[in-house]
Structure prediction request, 382 residues.
Amino acid sequence: MKFLHISDLHIGKSVNGFSMLGEQKHALGQIIEYLRAERPSVVVIAGDVYDRAVPGVDAVQVFDDFLTALAGEEVVVLLISGNHDSPERLNYASRLLTDKRLFLYGAFDGTLRKHTLADEHGDLNFWLLPFIKPSSVRGFFGDQRIETYGDALAAALDSAGIDYAERNILVSHQFYVKAGVSPIRSESELNPVGGLDAVDAGRIENFDYAALGHLHGAQTVGGENLRYAGSPIKYSLSEWRHEKSVTLVELGKKGALTVRALPLSPLHDMREIKGELAVLTSDEVSSLADREDYLRVILTDEEEIIDPMGKLRSVYPNIMSIDFENAHTRVDTGAIFTDAETIEKLSPFDLFSEFFLNTQGSTMSEEQSEIVRELLDEEGER
Ligand SMILES: [Mn+2]
Prediction:
């Protein structure tokens, strides 16, 4: 059986103040095209449909259009909630949607939900597990000690009575880690302090395939059968080197697994450029790629620039952030912080000199000192 694994749509998300709705529609459109070309029987959405528990009207509209398009392709859709979704809101109309072959599991109700489909090799079980945390499952397991995310997952899996001799697919939205392997993380994920939410991937390695959501970079966790599809578009500047994709999985008889990443291309890419303002804004350089890409710009000019954002935006309209990398930011600034008592004894000129040093990373030039002296004289402050 062939199925498409996607996750972390985060519909409605803005990045650095830029709405990603256009990018999201574009990516979802490509997913529909892949469906038509590859004809999988199932689409698995492994959580984080929306970016917020209460998504905006336009976000809901975009997802509604996507589901309607999926229904038109006559695939079975299996969907769980992620840590960004509201489980109850996502549950809305889920019983009615079953008739449309859309199986949605938003709010965990005590066990995994099993959805069995058949192909020429027999039954194939999809096990749906919405995002869980210790506090949200404790009530379902009586006296069982559930302190950690690992405990919560173990309790949920044990309750399902899974026969691992059959063909089983897990759909889950947790932070699975493989001992000794650092996961690729992104700033756009919600990361609890200290990785308390991490769960050992060993707990799910007996599934023929785990269609995972949560991490925004596509990656496997140990084996090829445990995979994060990643988000369909870049959701933070930290992801600018990611190649975004959706995952096409084919499971033949037990153990016969093929996994393929189908690339997604953005309307406008997210990238980082670095150099001097004059070089970056020159025709020669700015014409090398799409000027409307979302950019993090690192300026290396040593001279002070007035209104760098305005100057850059006149060439690149979608600047997301500017950083400076020059002598001021490189060297140890030798900043000094005078205590309150001494401050009162300092002259306005000395105070300003200190402020300049602490913010600019260098002392004032003779010329700059002269300007400050003149200004203070005018105010009668020196
Ligand atoms: Mn996510």
